[in-house]
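Fill in residues.
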C-alpha cells in the first residue's frame, strides 16, 4: 500500500492523459516499436518487446509511488466520453532537491502532425507548475529532431545550450540541445 494520492488524469481539447495500467502493454509496444521513437530517445530499445513494455509500466507506476516521476498514456478523446488505447506517452522525471523536472514524450507515427504532442506537453507543463509546484522544466533533443524542437518551442521552452556528443545511440554520438522553461515564464493560455 502507498500513501501517495492517485495520479491525476489531464485533459486537452483532443486528448486524455492518464496513468498507465498493466493492460496498456500491447499499446505501448505498438507505439514504441516505431524505429524513430527509439532513434530519438535515449533508453527505448529497438526492437521493442512486450517484456520491455511491462517493465516500463511497472517502472513508471513505481516512480509515481516513490514521488520521482509521472508518466501519462496519451489517449484520444472520442465522442460519448470514450477514449482510445494509448497512442503516445508524455512524462516527467522529478528532481525534488532542485524542485525541477525533465520531460519526455513520443507519439505513434500515424497520429503525428495533428498537434497532439504539443497539446500533451502543454498539459503536462501546466500540471507540473500549477499542480505539483515545480520551479523549472527541462528537456533535451537531438539536433536532427526538428519536430521535437517545435513541440518544445510552442510550449515556451527556451534554448539553454548545446551538449556536444552527449547521447550515444546505436554506436553514434549525438549533440543534444538543452532547453528549459521557468515557472514564471509559463503561459497557460498561449
Ligand atoms: C516529436 C513528436 C513527439 C512530435 O509529435 P506530434 O504529435 O507530431 O507533434 P505536433 O503535431 O504537436 O507538433 C509537431 C511540430 O513539428 C513540426 N515538424 C514535424 N516534422 C518536422 C520537420 N521535419 N521539420 C520541421 N518541423 C517539423 C510540425 O509541423 C509541428 O509544428 P507546427 O505545429 O508548428 O506545424 C513525434 O514526432 C515523435 O514521437 N517522434 C519520435 C520520438 C521523439 O522524438 N520524442 C522526443 C524526444 S526529445
Amino acid at each position: 500500500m502507498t500513501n501517495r494520492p492517485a495520479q491525476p488524469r489531464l485533459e486537452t481539447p483532443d486528448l486524455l492523459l492518464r496513468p498507465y495500467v498493466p493492460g496498456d502493454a500491447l499499446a505501448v509496444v505498438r507505439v514504441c516499436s516505431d524505429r524513430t521513437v527509439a532513434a530519438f530517445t535515449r533508453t527505448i530499445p529497438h526492437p521493442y518487446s512486450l517484456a520491455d513494455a511491462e517493465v516500463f509500466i511497472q517502472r513508471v507506476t513505481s516512480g509515481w509511488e516513490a514521488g520521482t516521476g509521472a508518466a501519462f498514456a496519451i489517449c484520444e478523446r472520442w465522442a460519448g466520453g470514450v477514449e482510445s488505447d494509448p497512442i503516445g506517452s508524455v512524462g516527467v522525471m522529478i528532481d525534488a532537491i532542485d524542485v525541477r523536472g525533465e520531460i519526455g514524450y513520443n507519439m505513434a507515427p500515424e497520429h503525428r502532425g495533428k498537434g497532439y504532442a504539443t497539446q500533451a506537453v502543454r498539459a503536462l507543463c501546466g500540471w507540473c507548475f500549477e499542480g505539483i509546484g515545480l520551479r523549472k522544466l527541462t528537456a533535451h533533443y537531438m539536433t536532427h529532431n526538428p519536430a521535437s524542437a517545435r513541440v518544445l518551442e510552442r510550449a515556451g521552452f527556451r534554448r539553454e545550450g548545446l551538449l556536444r556528443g552527449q547521447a550515444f545511440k546505436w554506436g553514434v554520438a549525438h549533440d543534444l540541445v538543452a532547453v528549459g522553461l521557468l515557472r514564471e515564464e509559463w503561459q497557460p493560455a498561449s
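Residues 10-135 form a domain with the Aminopeptidase fold (CATH 3.40.630.30).
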